[in-house]
Amino acid sequence: MFETIVNVIAASGYLGVFLLMFLENVFPPIPSELIMPFAGFAAARGDLNLMIVIAAGTAGSVVGALPWYYAGLLLGKDRLSNLADRYGKWMTVTPEDIETASSWFAKHGRGAVFFGRLVPAVRTLISVPAGITRMPLKQLLLFSLSGSLIWTGALAIGGFYLESKYSTIARYLDPATKAIVAIIAGAYLYRLVRQLAKEN
Known about the structure:
Radius of gyration: 17 Å
Strand content: under 5%
Shape: globular
Mean pLDDT: 77
Number of strands: 0
Number of domains: 1
Largest sheet: none
């Protein structure tokens, strides 16, 4: 599994890294905690360039913030929460998730976008309250770029430098990777079933 994911990322190249990080921000199928270290591994093997990997991952993360920003800007908190209540189950986005992101934004101010990009539980939806409060797009992009660059850079560089211990790491990470993918799928199904049960 470990080798397969690294090879897939290497084969898909920088566009693959960009798209995976974009999707991770819109609808998290695979967390960045897996995407970027594996991309770093691929760079260490010589399949990709580390700096371009970081740039592609950061760009995907920043662009991925825009759909939620515009959703907050155009719909507002109440309408967005209602939509999440009705249809969010398929993306496992709940009104509570939106409320959590909004509370984080209110507590930490506009710097919440920067710090929110560094917090896995918040980073996906922190753009929602930014849109709701009509935060200027330039500010959103600036803070998202700064936070995302630190996050994706740290993960990719970590994967890059751990490649020197590839054989040892692969032996332990292969079962761990399978477990993480299973947990992600299980968590999605659990939340989906739970939300479907609430409607019945």
